[in-house]
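Q: Got a minute? One more chain.
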Amino acid sequence: MDLSQFTQAFFVEAIELLAEMEQLLLELDVDAPDSEQLNAIFRAAHSIKGGAATFGFTALTNTTHVLESLLDRARHGQLRLTGRMIDAFLETKDALQEQLTAYQAGKEPDADMVAHICGVLQQLALESGDGSAAVQAAAPAPAPAPVPAPAPTAAPEPAAADAGGEGGALRIRFARLSDSECDLLAGELANLGKVLSRTRSNDQLTVLLETTCSPDDIVAVCCFVIDESQIDITREAVAQAAAAVEAPAPAPVAALVEAAKPQAAQVAQAAPAVAPAAAPGASPAASPAGAKESSSIRVDVEKVDQLINLVGELVITQSMLTQAATMLDPVAYERFLSGLGHLERNARDLQESVMSIRMMPMDYVFSRFPRVIRDVSAKLGKQVRLDTYGKETELDKGLIERIVDPLTHLVRNSLDHGIETPDVRLAKGKDATGQLLLSAQHHGGNIVIEVSDDGAGLNRERILAKAMQQGLLVSESMPDEEVWQLIFAPGFSTAEQVTDISGRGVGMDVVKRNIQEMGGHVEIHSRGGQGTTTRIVLPLTLAILNGMSVKVGSEAYILPLSYVIESLQPLPEHLHSITADGHVIRVRGEYLPLIELHRVFDVAGAQTHPTQGILVIVQADDSRFALLVDELLGQHQVVVKNLETNYRKVPGISAATILGDGSVAFIIDVGAMPRIQRAQAASTAALAGAARRSDSIAI
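A: Always. Here it is, folded:
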């Protein structure tokens, strides 16, 4: 049987359990540990062990068994927790993560790594005064390999052996099963005890199992395949269970059960002496088969992306129909146009609903940083408190996964360069513990993510000196906002020495580049002695864009609406020339650079004089400028199509879309416009200089 669909579910849930374990360990008060937190940490390790044993992941089973033994003693007050133990448990979590990654890739985990982490845990068991526990942990029972399940049958199967043992028998009823789930569950249960009988009726399966495992153990293992609401467990006396068996088992079934005996014994031996505490809201007997199903389902991301693409195509088709309908007589085609209006509203609602599927809370990102701050601040000898705001704010899954690395760089930068050591903070009259704030909030069609610290702030003089040393064009009169942007230059670092945290001149330039690739921009605000705030502004999604369509010559372009401030038609007295081809526009006392899109994209037949066209005022990277276009066509949502995947990267263009008339329109990379204009001006100046030199030589 192909178990890949079930192993993938195990990997996903195990990763979630490890994340929960890490969060609980970081929140745990070592001096007065909360029993509920300890129970939850133990349950996470126990559930991972059960699933790993089911799928034959030996290293994962052994490691979680050793960890589970220590956690079980801690939650029953037999082991006094220390900071060193928490460090070891966190290290174990990292090791378990590595093992899961290896198994996901179809490989065996590194044996030295497994031996090291098991040795660390065993040493803790010895130091805590329980040598027997360490010895038992040193040789955990090998993980049983999955046993092939017998073919489904509608008739009950007799016992293969006399019912006996201390654990008694459990009658387990499963509901709403597929054929593959039924077969896999039967094989799993054979690993956990002795199957006395098994009855299959439609999508129902009833198994009578003689086992020493608790109902919680059974549920923990089976929940890697089905939902807890599909399981109902009752305990029966051994004599009652034996009486329910009518005849000796046929030879093939008996052989199967005999083959499973050693593995069942191993699982029973590995089971903890004390049954794990029930999960909140759960009981040994799970909810009956008729109970409400789980409120969520797991769907492959590729399926969601395919659905989003199809809805995008539907929106484009609807837009084409709407544009074509503008040529129809509204009286003669009243019913058709009314139906088309309903289609437009329904398509928009469907689009918004489908897009919401990909939205994830920022807590997915923020929950990673307590561990980072704990480890880095300990290395630096600093005391740091993390506060978060807006964890429930949602962002597209594609963006939320790509924002993790830039945020990690910014957090580590605040810890290393920003927040001072306790003695320095006390000397400045600050609290010894520094504060780091992570926040997220919606702002229009964007999400704004901030990393703030109350540290020393950026050092303007040091940044300028370093920039001059590296040959960057800077001046003492530069405004602070431009000086702060210098730290994003490639290879720029003001660290006095290279450490494993900073000083290599990499990181901040990658941060800015990655954010720009996501259609966003980054801003920095800093005050000496008071701290620094780094603000990241991102679109909510990369699949749908609120845009303003503009015309340049015969070409249509899309400006992301989040960059647009206003549009106007300038008067001649508002224009000022600074070079032969360079102009600025005065808007309410502020002089803004003027960028002519027909020059940037070499479009023929466009309006070349600003007073004959329209100026769109935009803001990107904390600076404002004006874009010259011929006319404004309107505002609407567009479906973003990746240009590099379908064609190639084009300077100044971030993506493309399909308009209602079926034509392709490019989405302008607003942040790249000033760079392209400077590059074109430099190229023009170089050509002019070469021409002058050529003329002088000819003379």
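A: Confidence is low (pLDDT under 50) at residues 131-166, 244-294.
Q: Perfect, thanks.
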